[in-house]
Amino acid sequence: MLQRLRFIPLRIVQAIPVVFGVTLVVFFLVRFLPGSPAIAMLGEHATPAAIAAVDKEYGLNAPIWVQYGDFIGNLVRGNLGQSLFYHQPVSQLVRVGFPATLYLVVYAIVLTVIISVPLAAVAASAPGRARDQFVRVGPLVGLGMPQFWVGIMLILILGVRLKIFPIGGYGSDFVANLGYLFLPALTVAISMSPIVIRSLRSAMISVLGSDYVGTARSKGTSPFHLFSRHVLRNAAVPTVTVLGVNVGYLLGGTIVVEKVFALPGLGNYMVTAIFNRDFPTVQGITLVIALMVVVVGILTDVVYALLDPRVKLA
Fold first, then answer.
1. Domain coordinates in residue numbering, the chain
2. How many Cβ atoms are within 10 Å of 145's Cβ, its own excluded?
3. CA–CA separation, 218 vs 271, rounded Å?
4. Model's pTM, two decimal places?
5. Handedness of CA 244, 246, 247, 248 (dihedral sign)
6. How far is CA 138 from CA 118, 154, 278, in A?
7. CA count, 13 A, side-chain hemisphere, 34
8. 231/124 Cα distance (integer angstroms)
9. Alpha carbon of residue 217 to chain centroid
10. Domain 91-307 is found in CATH 3.30.70.100
11. Per-residue pLDDT of the chain in tens (314 residues, 90 and over written 9)
């Protein structure tokens, strides 16, 4: 097993230029946002002298390459900078918001799997028939709807009208969060499930037509064991890759969803920082999210290698 995981150090080394590229792109892109951080802090009626004082205090009046050099220098020392809007270190915001975002992402992945596996199995068991067509077309509705609209509809139906789940906020412990984060996680899962269902359905159809499945059937293997031991494990290999590749899309979805459900996560901080031209917060949180995507990519390779011993990743 350890030999199959020898690629991990190389993946970590390969991630370094990716993260550096993210810092470069994000740093310069946020500078193209219209408006001034100083005006966002002081208001529209701030005097030029007050604006100049704020720019000098936060180094915003320095040449842009000097600002980038300071940002990288601070980053090497583990300093993500000082938030212009929240008036506290960005690293502190990350420590506060990261658990909620991580919980939401993991919860959304679990719900995506719970939704996708049964529907893909139903579709793959009768390809071309009515239930297959329904499973293939039905979830696409969720893919085409904006996540903020899906979230609002879930709030109105399951939160306000039926009063089954909380409509916003964050719980105080793990069990409470299962209720508080269900609607936001379901919102993200509804958008992710069609992609996973399509991949898993195709893989299951291919596996069901293989010789070893036919041999297992001829030996009298029960449908449950046939599905769990032979079909699902082999069909999950390409689907794991699809899910890992789409984690970036999933994280992007949580940014909007956190705002809709008033979750104290990185996405909520990010949206607020963008509207208030809080450059250090946007840069720091974007970097953390990029690192999450890189880590998930490495974990995807690990799971892929464990599921299929034939695969050798270099």
1. 13-76, 91-307
2. 14
3. 57
4. 0.83
5. positive
6. 14, 18, 41
7. 0
8. 11
9. 39
10. no
11. 555 566 677 777 888 888 888 888 888 887 777 777 877 777 777 788 888 888 888 787 888 888 888 888 888 888 888 888 888 899 999 999 999 999 998 999 899 989 988 998 888 888 878 888 888 777 777 777 888 888 999 999 998 999 888 888 887 788 888 889 999 999 998 888 888 888 888 888 888 777 777 777 777 777 777 777 777 777 877 787 777 777 777 777 788 899 889 888 998 898 888 888 888 898 889 888 888 888 887 887 777 777 665 555 55
Q: Which amino acid is at 130?
A: A
The gap between the terminal CA atoms of the chain, to the nearest Å, is: 14
Q: How far apart are CA 110 and CA 182, in angstroms?
A: 11
Please provide residue 82's backbone torsions phi and psi, each rounded to the nearest 5 degrees: -110, 130
d(CA 210, CA 196): 21
- Find the length of the chain: 314
> Can you read off the two tokens belonging to residue 175?
């069990």
Q: Tokens at residue 261, please?
A: 């459900």
Six-digit token pair at 169?
């906020």
Q: Are 188 and 257 in contact (CB under 8 A)?
A: yes
**Which residue's entry shows tokens 């009298």?**
220
